[in-house]
Write a structure and sequence with these properties.
29% helix; five-stranded mixed β-sheet; 256 residues; alpha+beta; 6 helices
Amino acid sequence: MTATRRAWLRGGLTTAVGLTAAACDKLTQSPQVNATLDGAEALNRRLHGLFVGRSALAREYDRSAISPDFRANGTTNPDSEDYQALAAKGFADWRLQIGGLVERPFSLSLAELHAQPARSQITRHDCVEGWSSIAQWRGARLGPLLKRAGLKPQARYIAFFCADTLELTLDGSGDYYETIAIADAFHPQTILAYEMNDAPLPVAHGAPVRLRLERQLGYKMAKYVMRIEAIDSFAALGRGRGGYWEDRGYQWYAGI
């Protein structure tokens, strides 16, 4: 292949990718397309609950199934001064804040979180990009922590605010956050994982704590969790669609 032909193909591919990206941007900004996607998401959520059940457990595996090369995606080391200071001390000064629409807000150190009711599970992580890996996770069950805080009647969602920023924006909408339904927060496999494969959770995978929400796709499992709040609406968070990636076109409910 000649250099001219390679350059022509490269230019063609770049143009095609650019046109596709531009088309996707236009689609995600279309009210009609978003309304259709929202309708499909609601249908998916109803069918998932009807045929699978929101409390059904995700499959768990033997240790022999653990993947030797679990990929770390998204942010792999938040560069904020606050996070780096916490990491430098082994997260000894980290405290998880639990508040919002609760009767008894409180905070926990990492050592105190380790003392809470916990669960270990070997599960498969399914990424929206098309790859899957299996790992063992251990962490505090979220449900008992929320019971301790005492949810107020108007609480409908649980929001997770994280240390990483995927996109620098003036309005802060590039800061990673995620929201889930109250029912999913109380699922028995929903944990705040602080161990992976019998070792402290690595920074690349979300240390000191990440959410594990085994019945949904990987992008729902927020890493670097710093604060949890019970809320009645996520309209005022980010761009109002319930999570960093949801604000950029992903569906809020990612049930599998």
